[in-house]
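Lecture 7 notes: from sequence to structure.

We start with a single chain of 78 residues. Read the sequence below before looking at the structure.
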Amino acid sequence: MIKSYFAGLYERTMTEAYNTARSAAADALRGGGNCLDCGATSGHEYEFLDDSIGLTRDRYTGIEWHPDIARAGQERGL
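Now the structure, written as tokens:
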């Protein structure tokens, strides 16, 4: 029961933290500038920024260390 409580608390806390960070990044980029996404996975944060502020691909650079995941992003044009 306690383990389940803390797992849920951690998940909720991390979700809130990432949502806050995404909103702050979108606000910072709204007026221009470029985005460097470290640990970009296949680029799902780019999709969020494109949907929320119309971030163009030429303003986005993603860095991902895992070659298969990086390839997935490259196949999507990132």
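Helices lie at 2-29, 44-53, 67-75. Keep this in mind for problem set 3.
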